[in-house]
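Section 3.1: Structural characterization of target chains.
Under the original work plan, the team committed to producing a structural model for every single-chain target entering the pipeline before any wet-lab resources were allocated. The record below documents one such target. The sequence was received from the expression subgroup and is listed exactly as submitted; it comprises 261 residues.
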Amino acid sequence: MARTFVQVDAFTDRPFRGNPAAVFLLDGPADPLWMQLVAREMNLSETAFLHPRRGGFDLRWFTPAVEVDLCGHATLASAHALWTEGHADPATPLRFFTRSGELGAEREGDWITLDFPATGPAPCPPPEGLLEALGAQARYVGKTRFDYLVELAAEGLVRDLKPDGHRLKALGVRGVIVTAKGGEPYDFVSRFFAPGAGIEEDPVTGSAHCALGPYWQGKTGRADFLAYQASARGGEVRVRVRGDRVLLSGRAVTVVRGELL
């Protein structure tokens, strides 16, 4: 049976920027092996699979290599697809039921705001090989539920990184978030390397900002930020820390409508 899908560039208002995700709206639960094979075929950092249920939608995310517990850009892409493809009322907030609990999405003008759990880091000694793999000196190293978080001294150092993905993969975590204070208009910049999930560098990572928001709140005393993920594609994320939740806002644009035969 043919299944339609859309491909959405998330955390951008322009095609070919931000982070692309494929979104499949299914009638009901699907075989995880099939979903993993489809994600490998899509060959994007994430493919989202969702189906209706009472009160919202079940949502799962797959990289080409593994299923993941939390993904921001594919959730934003899913909300955008549901509203723009006529599957949900744009005036009504959405609820998603996931491996990381219940997540929300609502429209705020041209922006979509996601309600996600905060995953702030705890400071830790750098594990063996981390800084060598990055080729950088760290101001701070911490560990979140999923990743290591490393602060560098300057934005330019983050932008210029050329890490050793093989050595990062050996750390045994999903990925490594690298950040620094940003120049105007951005409060901080970041990049995210996730060879542990089969992704050398993720273009724009919503879930990483669930850690970055609380981290920069601790450094600055502020709760609201405009952030930029400085990958080759690049993307903007508005970050608002609210207790144990983080509100992530971004824009999205559909670039492909297709049919999986």
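The chain has a mean pLDDT of 97.
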